[in-house]
Write a structure and sequence with these properties.
single chain; about 350 residues; mainly beta; 24 strands; globular
Length: about 350
C-alpha cells in the first residue's frame, strides 16, 4: 500500500496554490484589513473594551444551515449529482449514494482521477489524458484518449451532445462528442492563466462557464466556443476573488445563478447571470476551515459541499437569513426555499 504515502501532481499543485493564496491573505497590510471590515460603532483602532478580533470573526452570518452530512471511506477527489444520487470519487473507487448517504453501489477505477460529470444515462470520469464512460450501474462503456499528448486535463462538464474538458497544460477548453470525437478548442480572448489546478467548468442553460483563475475571472461561452464576456476581479472583499488563482469550482442554480467556490480563504458565493455579485453564502467558518476549495453542487433548494471525506448538505434558513443581505435579494432563487426551525 505504498501508494497511499504518495501525493498526486494535482494534489501537490492544489496545496501549493492554497498556501500561496493563504500567504497572500496573511500578507495584506493593516490598512487593507481595516478597509475590509466595517467595525461596530464605538470601536476605534482596537482600543475599546472587548475583543475586536472576535467581532470581526463573527461579523458574517451565513443564511445557510448545515442540515446533514455523511462520510466516505477516503478523501474525496470529486463528486457529481446524477438524478437522485450522489456520485463520489475517493481513492480509486466510485461510490454511489442516495441523497441521505445510503450506499447504493461502488466500483473500482484507475488512479489520478481529476473530475466527474454525469447526464441522465452515463457517468463520465476525467483522467489527465483520457475520459472513461460508465453506466449508472458501474458498467464500463467506452473511453478515449486526449487530443494532445501534452494534455493535463483538469475539469469537465457535460452538455447536450457534447463533453467539455479544461486542459491545464495547454490552457484551453477541449470539446468532444459524447462518443469521444474531438470537435475543437475554445481559446480565451483574455488568455487562460492557470497557475495551479484551478480550471473549473460548468454548463447551464446553453452557456459554458469557465474559471480563468489566474486572472480572477469567470468567462462565458456558447457551446460553439463564442466568447460572451466575463465577470470577476481580484481582491479579498466579498464579491472578489482572492489569492493567486480563484475561483476553483463552479456550479449553478436552476434559474441560472452561478455559484463559485474559492480556496486560500474558502468561501462560496452567488453571482447573477449578468455577473453581478449577489451574496456570500458560506464562509470558511461555515464550511469547516482549512485552505483548500470545497467542491459544490446545487439541486433544488440545497447546496451539496464536499471537503476531506465529508459530503455535507446546506439549506437556506429563513431565521438566519433575516440577518443577511441574502434575505433582501429580489431574485426568485430556488436556494431561498428554506427552513424555519
Amino acid at each position: 500500500m505504498e501508494y497511499k504515502n504518495k501525493i498526486s501532481r494535482k494534489r501537490f499543485f492544489k496545496i501549493c496554490g492554497s498556501l500561496i493564496a493563504g500567504g497572500s491573505i496573511l500578507g495584506v497590510s493593516g490598512l487593507l484589513i481595516r478597509k475590509r471590515f466595517i467595525l461596530p460603532d464605538g470601536v476605534l483602532d482596537g482600543r475599546t473594551a472587548g475583543n475586536v478580533a472576535d467581532i470581526r470573526k463573527d461579523a458574517f452570518t451565513s443564511p445557510y444551515k448545515l442540515v446533514s452530512s455523511f462520510s466516505v471511506p477516503d478523501r474525496i477527489e470529486s463528486f457529481e449529482l446524477a438524478g437522485d444520487n450522489l456520485v463520489v470519487a475517493a481513492s480509486n473507487n466510485i461510490f454511489i449514494y442516495d441523497r441521505t448517504g445510503s450506499l447504493l453501489n461502488n466500483f473500482a477505477v484507475g488512479s489520478n482521477l481529476r473530475d466527474i460529470a454525469a447526464d441522465e444515462e452515463n457517468i463520465y470520469l476525467l483522467f489527465p489524458t483520457r475520459i472513461e464512460v460508465y453506466g449508472q450501474d458501474g458498467e464500463w462503456l467506452r473511453d478515449w484518449e486526449a487530443c494532445s499528448d501534452q494534455s493535463d486535463y483538469c475539469s469537465m462538464a457535460v452538455a447536450p451532445g457534447s463533453v467539455f474538458v479544461t486542459d491545464a497544460a495547454n490552457k484551453n477548453i477541449c470539446k468532444y462528442t459524447k462518443d469521444g470525437n474531438f470537435m475543437g478548442f475554445i481559446q480565451s480572448p483574455n488568455g487562460f492563466v492557470i497557475p495551479s489546478y484551478s480550471f473549473g467548468i460548468t454548463y447551464t442553460n446553453g452557456t459554458i462557464y469557465s474559471s480563468n483563475s489566474g486572472r480572477h475571472l469567470v468567462e462565458k461561452y456558447t457551446p460553439d466556443g463564442e466568447y460572451l464576456g466575463s465577470f470577476g476581479k481580484a481582491g479579498g472583499a466579498t464579491g472578489m476573488f482572492c489569492g493567486c488563482c480563484n475561483p476553483v469550482h463552479l456550479a449553478y442554480t436552476s434559474t441560472g445563478e452561478i455559484i463559485t467556490s474559492e480556496k486560500g480563504n474558502p468561501r462560496i458565493s452567488c453571482y447573477g447571470t449578468d455577473g453581478e455579485f449577489r451574496s456570500l453564502l458560506l464562509d470558511s467558518k461555515s464550511l469547516g476551515g482549512g485552505n483548500t476549495a470545497y467542491d459544490i453542487k446545487v439541486f433544488d433548494d440545497k447546496i451539496y459541499v464536499t471537503g476531506n471525506n465529508l459530503v455535507s448538505t446546506f439549506q437556506y434558513d429563513k431565521i438566519l437569513a433575516a440577518k443577511t443581505a441574502c434575505s433582501d435579494c429580489g431574485v426568485d432563487c430556488p436556494l431561498r426555499e428554506g427552513i424555519t426551525v
